[in-house]
Structure prediction request, 401 residues.
Amino acid sequence: MRPIKRLISLDEALSLAMNRTHSVTRVETVPILGGYGRVCAETVISKINVPPFSRSAMDGYAVKASDTYGAAKLKPVKLRIIEVIYAGSVPKKSVLRRHCAEIATGAMLPNGSDSVVMVEDTELEGGNVLIYDSVHPGQNVSKKGEDISVGTPAISKGDILNPSKIGALAAIGRREIAVYSKPLVAVIPTGNEIAELGQTLKPGQVYNINSYTLASVVESNGGEARMLPIVNDSIKDLEKVVKANKDCDMLVFSGGSSVGERDVMLDVLEKHGTVVFHGIAIKPGKPTLFGTIGKQLLFGMPGYPTACLSNAYILLAPVLRKMSMLPLRASATLETKMAKRVVSTTGRTQFLTVRLEGERAYPAFKESGAITSMAFADGYVVIPADVDLIEKDEKVVVHLL
Prediction:
């Protein structure tokens, strides 16, 4: 057994990890829909106007605004209808004085008109229309280039491609977009005590939970997870998997970071790279390992599922978001009261999972090996290292999961 020599604070651990994290600057071109959630790597200048023509924003009648002046409910203006214009069709006639054209929403405005009277303010009378309200020039019209004009950016480098920005690309006819590549993260389960899903458990074995929770955190924070088979607890096998995944931006091991005689991840990192820290003053998740192998980042997460997942939320997620050029995401919080008295460990920051019932937070934590400590929780309460007790009915801030 090799005890962890020194525990560092969570703040120090996060600072050390973030300071060694660099954004991925590789660029790839993808279909615009495939770019959803990605960071744009180019500024896209529009070559067309959007809309490409002035169009009606309402169903109604395209008119000269001056022809409607003075129109009122008791004194309508009568205009002659010269044609009907549908969306997608091209007007054939120009609107002269005292004339108008029936027009659909989105249809091209005919020459000679400068505004549209809503159909609700009109009444048909044979081949004429009675106008009961006046309009001003430009009213109910989307002007050519009003949305995006030629020579202006549709989106900019560094923008995150959300639905509206993808819509802007579609509006100018772009089918593909250059984006920054996702960080490639190898997710590597270790330990002779874990089995792949679908296998029959042998005595002393449990199923591989951590690969799936870690991969979910990777994918939801801008990364691309490469899930690898279970690796035995041996220096030779760990070295082999490290060598085989040199193309990855990050390696994330689960298990093998503690102090047992089979926890050899530390030995591998010391031999091939640099150990930045090993051991954080938090509960759960104390035996967390972080370091570098060349430009590659390496996390050694605790093997117990709750400890592994909670550390993935608080350490892995922000590192991934920096690598992906995504903004750091603060969790939503709410203030409530603790339903029971909670005793904590002085000197270690504790992440206490809780479930919310009414106006109370009930502890959900069972032990570090119980995944339901997270699965059945609505959030967690951060108990600072210098606090050893939270009394019943004491106000707490819950970070929602």
The two ends are 35 Å apart (CA to CA). Residues 27-50+146-180 form a domain with the Molybdopterin biosynthesis moea protein, domain 2 fold (CATH 3.90.105.10). The chain has four domains: 10-26+182-323, 27-50+146-180, 55-142, 333-400.
